[in-house]
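re: ur question from yesterday

yeah so i grabbed the chain u mentioned. its 271 aa long if i counted rite. heres the sequnce exactly as i have it in my notes:
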Amino acid sequence: MTSFLFWNVMGKDLRPLIAEAVRIHDVDILMLAESSVSDKELAASLISITGQPFEAISDARDKVRVFSRLPKNLWIRRQTDHLSARMVIWSLNIGPGILVAVTHFLSKKNVNEGEQSMLAVELAKEISRVEDAVGYQRTVRVGDLNMNPFDAGVTGAQSLHAVMTKRLAARMERQVQGSAYRFFYNPMWGLFGDRTDGPPGTFYKRSPGVIELFWHMLDQVLLRPTLMDSLAELRVLDSIGNAPLLTEGAAIPNVSIASDHLPIFFRLELE
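ran it thru and got these structure tokens back, copy pasting raw so excuse formatting
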């Protein structure tokens, strides 16, 4: 069983919380967006609190910092996209091998929804290109997409083509206008709203606009159909040990303690 934790930490130094989350959930692979702490300092905190040999595998180009307690020689860097390193893809040689595509995508603060969708097409092309190069489609895509599961950049056939059910994803691909587009399975749909065991989403926003969802699922895990049955656990975390990540009254992300995003934790049965 291989465990993953992703968190957009809002540029804050959350080393004690991060390391405690890694220890409690026995995390193998940690991924952080908007980290302001050096890789060396973060790795030292992880080693100190968990007693595990964590080291950084990302480099200065990457928007997302990745730390692993798995041996570094199991990781092979396959790609850094041309969109300011918004996505990096590694192959990870455990079990039959997987591809790990880690993303911190462009926000609607900087581009509109149409531009997001068009740029997501480029990310999808890069994932397919790497899959073709390594000869398999066992891909997990994780990160802050800055889009909801229903946005065109996530659902569109030419973009990420992520669907809400295993039954749909099991078709592997779909023909649109004579071209075949590979599916992703998006399990985050099952965590959206208040009829779940955890928070309604990963990000909360209150704007003065006429239309506002309030809760958004910006942070997502997408799985190719060949990997979707290996998903053993998926959670949006609302606490780390005794530290609540939501405010007591409104039950929204508590930015005075942590981040405006909530972390996502998942485990894959890969061996």
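noticed a couple things. The radius of gyration is 18 Å. also Residues 2-268 form a domain with the Deoxyribonuclease I; Chain A fold (CATH 3.60.10.10).
anyway ttyl
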